[in-house]
Model the fold of this input.
Amino acid sequence: MAAKVVELDQIGTVQLHKRKGSRNIRLSFARNGDIRVSLPFWVPYQTGLQFALQRQEWIIKHRPSKPFGLTHGDRIGKAHRLQFVSSNTAIKPSVRITNNLITVQLPLGMSENHTKAQVSAVRGAIRALKKESEQLLPQRLKVLAANHDFNYKSVTVKKLSSRWGSCSQHNEITLNLFLMQIPWNLIDYVLVHELVHTEHLNHSPEFWQRFASIIPNPKKLRKELKNYQTAVKATI
Done:
């Protein structure tokens, strides 16, 4: 995925991301509060910048008051909790995962909002999400495939920056570990979407007909899915 970062006096930092297969320009906020513009691959970066500038009033109104951050007690994924603890022996932040607890150990006097503390928290959260996703997603995909007569060659779970999943022409399915942060009905939406691609690689009427035979009203769920980001974020 091609990307570019531009500083604009009027609205600040703009992250421009080009995606193959995308048809529309989309505006959102990155995890650190930057403006994020997603573009079809063929659209010039300048068009994305103009798109952001034309929505300056909306950006000012909806821009987060501070960057999205992780805090003590946040739920990560389906089963993990995050905690920050201070230690008089710690020289720098460190993270460990024990059972379902993500512990970020901080030097005395360091706030959980410190950049280094947040970096460690995100690192630990990703490790926890990877563990959960590798345990749960392949198992759920296997059940859905068996229930609805799908066949796929393999399934891989990894960190993806902009997609929830994909299916190759060889029926190799890739799933995003950040799926563990969204509700189960939306996870099933993504899994079924990739399974249907094993029969229909495009989004033809036949694709959506097969999809709707398994999950009714897919448009409603697709709209709900747009409220979630492929990034570390507390689920409650």
